[in-house]
Amino acid sequence: MKTTKLFFKLAITGLFFALIINNAESQNRVKLGVISMDTKGLQVDNQTMTSLVHLELEKANVYEVLDRYDVANLVRKEGIDVNDCFGKTCLVKIGKLLEADKMLSGSVEKFGDKIIFIFRLIDVKSNRIEKTDVMEFIDQQDQLQIMVRMCINNIIGVENDKFLLDLLVNYDQPITTSRTTLSLNGPRVGFTYAFGDVAERMTAPKSEGGLDMYPVSNIIGYQYEKQFLSSGDFQALFEVLPTVSGLESGMFIPSLTTMLGFRFNKSGIEFGLGPVFRVSKLAYGKYIDEKWVLSTEIPAEERKDHVFVKQIDRRGNYHLTTGMIFAAGKTFRSGYLNMPVNIYASPQKNGTIVGIIVGFNVANRPKLDRN
Asked: Angle at CA 241, nearest 5°, toward 238 and 243?
């Protein structure tokens, strides 16, 4: 019992001293005032941006942030227009009236495809700008609060999350000219659909030499892409795309596509064409009464009366086949992330293959070609 009472007294004493220390720290904290933040070209106005700054400063719990209603009352009594008080002289004047140690102001402006934040911390007593922070973000206005938090972290000396920096900070865009090369690589996934005799042989049962596949097949690959020409908004690319398909049907069908591609950088619209190489099991045969018959199944003396074609047949031998691919699409961008969506067609005499393929790649900074 005595031990319990002693513990209780110690706990009460510790809490008492903690409250005293906390109160002393609160009284010694630097007083900071925020009048208004200037905004241009944004979906939010000055008042909303000022509220976001107040909120993030309160959450940071570094300064004693002056109550915005008290600030508003004083400004109104002094007849000061908050939407015209962003300079050091005006802020120092109000800071002295508020008995604030420091004042925070700045501007947030949309410029092209980026948002520029400029925050200034002003020391009232010394009448000087103590710290200035400038940050450029991608135009992602639904993330304005996180951007404000990052700028305040810079002001108070707190390190920002590197992952968020990579997602939101707008680094200088790479310059692309005839003297630079740009590499864009990335995975690709999609679907293909076959028509004509090719589709019939793909879906035919194994007993008839078919592949017993679905007419729709998935496709997985990785695109290697290199820019070799850049002139204004126009870019010319060389693309190599190795892929495999048919995995959902238990098949492994490799192919290799090489294309000459053309892209308009601003719109992201692109198109290309080039040869495609496939490896498949093929055999000679023909359709008789709508049934596929191998040439070897017809007596030798009668074969001269038939015209056979080489077609997909699991009983045949592996062959390398060629074709042409024509593709068109659009690349959607978010910062340095490119998200290409393309449709394509590969026409052949015995059938046509069409498909859609999507993916992503990241634009790396270009390397200067000194040759």
From this structure: 175
H or E segment to which residue 88 belongs: helix 88-98
CA 362 – CA 265 distance, rounded (Å): 14
Residues 6+ apart with CB under 8 A from 85: 35, 36, 75, 91, 94, 105
Return the CATH number at 349: 2.40.160.20
Mapped onto helix, strand or coil, the DSSP state of residue 50 is helix
The CA-CA-CA angle for residues 55, 105, 40, to 5°, reads 90
Is residue 116 a part of any domain in this protein? Answer: yes
At 198-252, the pLDDT tens digits run 888 888 888 788 888 888 889 999 998 887 777 666 788 899 999 998 888 888 8
| Antiparallel, parallel or unpaired: β 180-181 and 367-368 | antiparallel
Q: Do residues 73 and 14 lie in contact, with contact meaning Cβ atoms separated by under 8 Å?
A: no
Q: Name the pLDDT band for 341 (thresholds 50, 70, 90).
A: very high
Mean pLDDT of the chain: 82
pLDDT value of residue 190? 94
Q: Which of 260, 255, 262 is nearest to 241 (CA)?
A: 255
Count of domains forming the chain: 2
